[in-house]
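re: that chain from earlier
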Amino acid sequence: MTSRRDTLKTIGLASGLGLVSPMSLLACSESVKKEKLGVALVGLGYYSTDLLAPALQITKHCYLAGIVTGTPAKAETWKAKYKIPEKNIYNYENFDSIKDNPDIDVVYVVLPPSMHREYVERAAAAKKHVWCEKPMAMTVEECQAMIDACKSNGVSLSIGYRCQHEPNTLAYTQLIKEGKLGKINAVSCAAGYRENRTDHWKQKREMGGGVIYDMGVYSIQGARLGTQLEPVAVKSAKVWTERPEIYKDGLGEIVEAELEFPNGVSGWIKTSFAENVNYLKVQGEKGELSISPFQGYAGIKGSSPMGEINFPYEVPWQQANQMDQDTLAILAGKPMPVPGEEGLRDIRIVQAILESAETGTRVEI
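^ sequence. v structure.
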């Protein structure tokens, strides 16, 4: 008899790890000239340096082909460390000439949110596929412009929601989709960490700072994935700071919001730059599903009435898996697993949360 854990393991391994048959891989490779796609990272901050570049050393279907940076010293360091050809190194002024480089198939935008629209549009105009880090952009209008630019140039657009490719996340969402918890009644989700930097873009409104755009997107994602529903309104919201000398002029260090979902489902989310918090709880008529941590780079695990959910891996497998899955979609000519529209949905909710907090009223989404 198959155990409940084995059932969950099958769920995770089949969908979460994105396994495909040898014939499917053969079809992918035969449909294009390249067997691997070359990726250029735009912006060489922490995420590119500590996670994406190492992940691109273990990916199976894509590789680090180029970089874009405004810092010559970084360019020299990366050139030597990763053996990047001089012709594949760009700055922000000559970036548009990337269109003439056949080594670069994908541009991964890893910049402050205020710069996402510009570089997604420029990459699309260069006829390169685009991966963009979260949050997608500052406004719904910017998100839509990015989607439109990629569509009009015939390239794909994916948002870097690594958890949507991740086996534990795929396992618990499948349980919910299959009705294993029965009717969902409520969801609560919190994502945050103690941010000790004081002069980073995350503390600058004009660059996309404030916790709701950064960690808040994880809480919103958790609530949406946990209910498998889209919220219809923000019932109430509160934005505040415990360090006004750092988060100035009303910029949010901590945000809480009540979300209304269809069918009477309630949601509560919290996000914070003041404390370490990382969980998702889904209340169903047949019991509770709990995931903690639910959005880490590794160690995601949880419990449900069906048993434990726990598929371990090490950093930076999660980022490598995300990029490989996106690459396979491009090679196969299939829709991206996490398209631009997914990022737009979250920014629409972010804007509604901020409006509700400012006005003190319920805001429909």
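The longest strand covers residues 184-192.
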